[in-house]
Amino acid sequence: GKETRLRVVLRVRPLTCTETRRGDQRVVHSLGDGTVHVNAARHDATFGFSAVFDAGSSQEAVFEGSGMRQLVELAIDGFSCTVFAFGQTGSGKTYTLMGPLPQTETQPAAPGLLGLMQRSFACLLEQSRSRSSDLALSASYLEIYNEQVRDLLRPGPPCALPLRWNKTRGFYVENQLSVDFESLEAIADLLLQGSQRRRTSAHALNRHSSRSHALLTIHVCSRAVSMHPALGTGRGGLGREHHPHPMLVPQPSACPSKQGTLCFVDLAGSERVKETGSSGELSVEANNINRSLLALGHCISLLAKPRGKRTHIPYRDSKLTRLLARSLGGSGITLMVACVSPSSRCLSETLSTLHYASRARRVTTRP
Fold it and tell me: Is Cell wall biogenesis/degradation one of the keywords UniProt gives this record (predicted)?
């Protein structure tokens, strides 16, 4: 019930080969201790975050330093946990969450390049084996494309699902498919299957630009297990009197089950049509992406105000803000990963992301 601030970390990707060939200058510099300095013509600013990962940071360093392991443990303990990556298109959001694309069954990513998702799955399954609790795990995978919610795990052509609201559940997606899993291979297959169905396109800034917001949710049902003596048979006949040390076997206890969630949100990147060269359908997609991100930014700005000074939070302005309402202003625990390019050419979008992330640090929830 205590107020807790959103944890916000920053990842600065390396300059790309194209940016280096073009002669772009590096304008974002990590100063250590969670701060970055932006140094460019007419811009000289410093920003502070919970952690900053520069171009040399490994995927493992981001997982351990962001607090992702703690989020996994909190989800097992029954909390609603969310991690979402945001930033300009091509800034490294999907790479941070999932590792390099494309990933296929015949060409899996190298273990060192796996993203927050796969590392969290491994941590979750490891915790489930080591704890004395009975865990039931399932996953659902959705995308919001042109303001339509679509199920990425349901076979057949994608169709729009209705978004509902009630007092107990808040906003929820009706008829979404939830698939049980028990192994790392099974959840990796679900992630690959859903990601291949997600809408992506190529444009001037990104060969694999996500054209939708994607939400992968792991549902964790945890029930405590207690040890009770087994009523076995001994050589002398039936009954426990022949067993001075009866075998202990796990039995479900009367403890209530705990329902936790771990939700990964890969936001489509903000983009300027002039920079990406988008037209036609790509332009329509870009406008819908930017409109939903603007609605999200507006909600974050209002949530960043002290509770006594907050006005109505317009979660209903977009499907994205409705689905993130609990994560942002409710009873969840949230980690935000802001991704930026260090290139001078991306300065305007980078500054926008840094200001956005700084506001988010003032948002509080009551887990």
Answer: no
